[in-house]
Amino acid sequence: MHVSRRKLFAVVAAAGLATSGLAACGDGTQDNDAGGADDKIVLGFAQVGAESGWRTANTKSIQDSARAAGIELQFSDAQQKQENQIKAIRGYIQQKVDVIAFSPVVNTGWDPVLKEAKAAGIPVILTDRAVDSTDTSLYVTFIGSDFIVEGQRAADWLIKEYEGKTEPVNIVELQGSPGAAPAIDRKKGFGDAIAANPNFKIIASQTGEFTRAKGKEVMTAFLQSNPDIDVLYAHNDDMALGAIQAIEEAGKKPGTDIKIISIDGVKDAFQAMVDGKINVVVECNPLLGPQLMELVQKVVKGETVEKRILTEEGVFTQDQAAAALPSRQY
Ligand code: GZL
């Protein structure tokens, strides 16, 4: 297998051997790697899709950061289909990129292609979402949020909002895409946190696929079959914003007749809080680009990196929205 000078350098550097001689003894043949001009690092990124404002901001952060870091980015959009992501990753392996990074659309079924990347000597970085592989040697690190904590933070607001009250609280839940780590864990974090209070009842729960359109469609159906909904828990802002349209078309006031808890923190959700239509937003930071490029450079140099890198994020309520909105970056 052709080993480029970059890769040889990384192996030697990791072994702590002198490298100047080695670099000088390159055989002078042209690297037949992914065409990184004059030894530029080449990163292959397989993105989930463009399903939400969060995802669009995540993509922009990665593209802008690669440009700023002088890293050549090969980018693919899988349109929320795992087979497309796997195909893209196989393409990066054939191109012999220096590093592969991706946001797994679902958390299962990745071992075969990750084993192919490992066999090709190409390090893999997980961003945003995790995989269920038990073999953690298949990826160098996972940088992203803790979705269980996000679900717990959503529940914390609800518990405070209804503290001391005894009437039953009917909750409907718009779940993210089936099988996606954020959908699984936001559901678990929220459900486990409210279980102690029997007044909290999730009377309907269905996927809105993280999109506005599907969120509106499912909320419309919820409203038709449940006349007394008190709270909507949406796994992301796009579904909450779609649901707001459905609630208003049903003649009800979002944020008042039906309280809304959402996750992500896109600008439109902050505006909806300013308008009194969303009550609380649990932040999920999509701006992973700068940290990802730092990780890529470290990995190529053969430096060790943390196995799990957690993104910092907060919780914003209606009273904080107006002040925070001008500085929101996505
Ligand atoms: C969360 C991310 C989720 C967002 C959605 O890290 O994977 O996917 O919450 C996006 O908006 O579609």
TrEMBL record:
Localization of this protein: Cell envelope
Span of domain Periplasmic binding protein: 49-303
SUPFAM superfamilies listed in its UniProt record: Periplasmic binding protein-like I
Main location: other
Entry-linked PROSITE patterns: PROKAR_LIPOPROTEIN
InterPro entries: Peripla_BP_I, SBP_2_dom
Entry keywords, A to Z: Signal, Sugar transport, Transport
Family annotation (Pfam families): Peripla_BP_4
First and last residue of the signal peptide: 1-23
Family, similarity comment: Belongs to the bacterial solute-binding protein 2 family.
Name of the protein in its database record: ABC-type sugar transport system substrate-binding protein
Originating species: Catenuloplanes nepalensis
Phylogenetic placement of the source organism: Bacteria, Bacillati, Actinomycetota, Actinomycetes, Micromonosporales
